[in-house]
Design brief:
Elements lengths: L1 H19 L9 H23 L4 H8 L1 H13 L7 H18 L1 H4 L7 H23 L5 H24 L8 H35 L5 H12 L1
Helix pairs in contact: 1-8, 1-9, 2-7, 2-8, 3-5, 3-7, 4-5, 4-7, 4-9, 7-9, 8-9
């Protein structure tokens, strides 16, 4: 699923770039695309999938929201314009408390640093934080569409061979609902979402960008209540 997601998104974005004749990135950025693709897609996607098979989904949602905490703290150390202020720290703390309240405080009682499943989710959150900080510096001056296409292509270069090695060649004999889901993941949740991701990263910085993770839990709960 991850290979279809990043591969399809990269194909769609590079097609758009060629048709729209957008400026291509310098060759010196290809290594950065690969690094960000691994940090922002390959590692966190894999860690979250594995971690969620071992811990409750509610706790996973709370731990995933720690991305905002990691990023605000690290970005404050790296970037002068993202220094950690009392107001910013209080805002992140209130937001994280809101995630805990939304998912349920009882989920947090299951927190255990000796659990590999929980450590995997925390590691994924740390990957997101580091990737945002690295991308702000390494991909500076590159259009959001091109940054998105490059990093998703970098992720696809790694994930497609891994998927073929782990699962074998796909049959492609999937129901319409499965194709619809993978198409949504590729075009909307990846291609379009990462254009917004790099646009916001340029305008607002890594710390502010990471705050979107605080919205994941309540939105997921709302959509689950509506559709299920």
């Amino acid at each position: 699923i991850v290979a279809f997601r990043v591969g399809g998104a990269a194909l769609a974005l590079w097609t758009y770039i060629l048709v729209a004749r957008l400026p291509r990135p310098p060759r010196s950025s290809f290594g950065s695309f690969l690094i960000v693709g691994i940090l922002n897609n390959v590692m966190p996607f894999s860690l979250i999938v594995w971690g969620q098979s071992h811990i409750p989904s509610g706790l996973a949602g709370i731990l995933n929201a720690s991305t905002a905490i990691f990023t605000v703290l690290l970005a404050g150390l790296v970037f002068r314009d993202e220094r950690l202020s009392l107001r910013k720290a209080a805002g992140v703390a209130i937001g994280f408390a809101g995630v805990v309240a939304t998912v349920g405080p009882k989920e947090l009682r299951a927190f255990d640093l000796t659990s590999l499943g929980q450590l995997a989710i925390l590691a994924a959150a740390l990957c997101y934080a580091v990737s945002g900080i690295f991308a702000r510096t390494a991909l500076k001056g590159i259009r959001p569409e091109v940054s998105a296409a490059g990093t998703l292509a970098g992720a696809a270069i790694v994930m497609i061979p891994l998927a073929l090695w782990h699962d074998g060649a796909p049959t492609l004999d999937y129901p319409v609902t499965a194709w619809a889901g993978m198409t949504y993941l590729a075009l909307i949740a990846s291609a379009f979402a990462y254009i917004l991701f790099y646009r916001v990263l340029t305008l607002a910085g890594a710390g502010n960008l990471s705050l979107v993770t605080l919205m994941v839990a309540p939105v997921a709960i709302l959509l689950g209540a509506v559709f299920y």
